[in-house]
């Protein structure tokens, strides 16, 4: 195959969006999980099309809005539950449980430490401060630099990227990052944004128009919750 044709074929190849057993957004934005339609039906859930678009046709976004844990019992990721949880009533992995509260349960964290200007560049520090101020209680922890030489393979190597951890722990799934990521997009000029990633989707102001997160470009499946950006919003700055 000619090199150019080969490159084009790679660029046009479908990418996996929400990996199996990872989060998705069900009808109305409720918490969902990408599992097979058979497993969803067995668990008493309902599926919607298009929320796990690059997975096998038998894998769809499954949600369950009613379960036995008080009058408001509903299935959601434990990090997003504002009440108590009960196991073995919900589709997906063990972190999807029956929550007693109808509240989103997002956040509730103490203000994270903002990194000092140094290895972390001023543009990233200023961006982190602005986002934390705009979303009080929603960011648990902030990471800026990594142990790698600039330019490296990540903007973290140069101190020009921030990971905004928005779940109860690293590797703990949440659906809370969507509105934060869209806020970053809408404030791109003020923040001097290079690109933003949430939930295996990426948005870049130099090539993408302003749109809902559901229409952002899909990224490949990197294999786990953190690398697929389901526990943090990544923002790179210019």
Automatic annotation (TrEMBL):
<feature type="domain" description="ARB-07466-like C-terminal">
    <location>
        <begin position="118"/>
        <end position="230"/>
    </location>
</feature>
<dbReference type="Pfam" id="PF26571">
    <property type="entry name" value="VldE"/>
</dbReference>
<feature type="signal peptide">
    <location>
        <begin position="1"/>
        <end position="18"/>
    </location>
</feature>
<dbReference type="InterPro" id="IPR058593">
    <property type="entry name" value="ARB_07466-like_C"/>
</dbReference>
<keyword id="KW-0732">Signal</keyword>
<protein>
    <recommendedName>
        <fullName>ARB-07466-like C-terminal domain-containing protein</fullName>
    </recommendedName>
</protein>
């Amino acid at each position: 195959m000619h090199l150019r044709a080969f490159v084009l074929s790679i660029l046009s190849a479908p990418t996996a969006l929400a990996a199996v057993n990872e989060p998705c957004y069900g009808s109305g934005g409720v918490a969902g999980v990408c599992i097979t339609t058979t497993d969803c039906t067995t668990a008493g859930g309902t599926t919607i099309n298009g929320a796990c678009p690059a997975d096998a046709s038998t894998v769809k976004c499954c949600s369950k809005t009613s379960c036995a844990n008080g009058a408001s019992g509903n299935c959601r990721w434990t990090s997003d539950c504002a009440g108590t949880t009960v196991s073995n009533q919900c589709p997906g992995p063990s972190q999807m449980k029956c929550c007693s509260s109808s509240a989103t349960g997002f956040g509730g964290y103490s203000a994270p430490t903002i990194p000092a200007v140094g290895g972390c560049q001023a543009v990233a520090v200023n961006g982190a401060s602005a986002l934390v101020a705009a979303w009080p209680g929603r960011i648990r922890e902030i990471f800026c630099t990594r142990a790698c030489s600039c330019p490296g393979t990540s903007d973290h190597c140069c101190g020009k990227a921030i990971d905004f951890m928005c779940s109860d722990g690293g590797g703990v799934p949440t659906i809370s990052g969507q509105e934060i990521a869209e806020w970053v997009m809408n404030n791109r000029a003020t923040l001097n944004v290079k690109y933003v990633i949430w939930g295996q989707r990426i948005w870049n102001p130099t090539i993408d128009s302003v749109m809902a997160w559901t229409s952002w470009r899909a990224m490949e499946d990197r294999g786990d919750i953190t690398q697929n950006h389901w526990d943090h919003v990544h923002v790179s700055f210019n």
